[in-house]
Predict the structure.
Amino acid sequence: MTKAIGYIRVSTDKQAEQGVSLDAQREKLEAYAKLYDIDLIDMVIEQGSAKCLQREGLQSALNRLGQDADALLVVKLDRLTRSVADLGRLVESYFQDHALLSVGEQIDTRSAAGRLVLNVLASVSQWEREVIGERTSAAMQHMRSQNKYTGGKVPYGYDLVDGSLVENKTEQSVINLVAQYKAKGLSFRRIARVLSESGYRSRTGKALSAMSISRMAA
């Protein structure tokens, strides 16, 4: 009979105190273990985020694999991690030799079919992340081409007006001067000095630096 450790994670103190999520997870793990004839020898309960794997409860459960337990049982994979990369690291480090059982996704890596399902899920999740990234990048590029603000510091030479970037005539004139001086072969440091001597200042009122000039020339 497979000996498993149940791992239960809740995200907030409120969930931990009320016990609703804890009880629901516990009941599902106990029902799964009974249905599939698994000896549920212990349950590790933890409150915290899934942002990293270095969680005391999770590490304690993982370290018992190969000692007094053969498998780790969870309600869903996101109780372990929401990161495809971290899931891959867990599979490589722990679940090559020991079983991972998930109630929600019906994953049982004791079988070849279960390992296949886990790999497919990881691949699909990675694909979704890449597609979202590509769509976001395309959308940001389109917004920039339309002078739409995409977040971060408003670039020198522009003002933010109703969500759109509008040219600042004074700053644009400085950018034009930078281009002219650069065409004459002046270094960024020299251009910064010339403009500062002519009374030009940065947005914060400081003397222009070679770094700020290089960004204007980019």
Summary: The chain is about 50% helix and 15% strand. The helical segments are 13-18, 20-35, 56-63, 84-93, 112-145, 169-183, 188-197, 210-217. The longest strand covers residues 39-47. Residues 158-217 form one domain.
